[in-house]
Amino acid sequence: MADCEMTIDSGIATMTMNRPEARNALSMEMRSEMDRLFHEAEFDDAIRCIVLEGAGDHFMAGGDVKNMHEYLGSHGPAETQAYFLHRIHALHTIMFSMRRMPKPIVAKVRGAAAGAGVSVAAACDLVMAEESAFFTLAYCNIGTTPDGSSSFHLPRAIGIKRTLEMTLLGDRYSAQQMADMGLVNFVVPNADLDAECGKLAARLANGPTHVYGMGKKLMYRSLENEFESQLQMEAECFADCAKRNDYREGVAAFVEKRKPNFTGT
Prior knowledge:
3-stranded mixed β-sheet, single chain, 2-enoyl-CoA Hydratase, Chain A, domain 1, 6-stranded mixed β-sheet, globular, 11 helices, alpha/beta, Lyase 2-enoyl-coa Hydratase, Chain  A, domain 2
């Protein structure tokens, strides 16, 4: 079985990180598969929402530390530096795909989201977690700094002080704590995670897909744009959406006082 797999049903692509025996720790094979699958999802019009989950009892426990230990035991400093640059850039390619994705991505978090697991969850558009899930950045506990775009996403989601707390202390945080801090959108009972995430994904998959993509682009670019540039982008995104079928349907449904039937076009 592949280290990451994807199934598609009713417009929802469920992408499963599939190394449950290692708490879905990131192997190089998993990085390659995730990169390929996100690329496929980006250009598959049948996919209107993506749910990212981990197989088994955990979301993702970060990098494969056992593999790192084996590598360090047989390589010198220069080789090690080059190797880890390669590993990290392979993960960052996935982050670029997630940011570029013109469809909503929902992280479905059960169990541990540790190290790069926090990074990957933070890169998703929405995060739903079971009550017993926990989050820990944890890089400092093995003597290194965060990767996987967490140094970009976390300060913007939870603020610089909270991010520094997570970075410098490496402590564990509950799902509710992370919701209170602003990283998690929804906390649900453990037994309800599958059903509630399914409802959310179905709602998104039946929505105006192109509008979601434009909305993502608009909000993420606001983190870097100046005021005038952002307002220009607002105008361009609205005008782009206005020429499409879903806008016509949405306006007609509003006037006719009925529920819109969006097609994603």
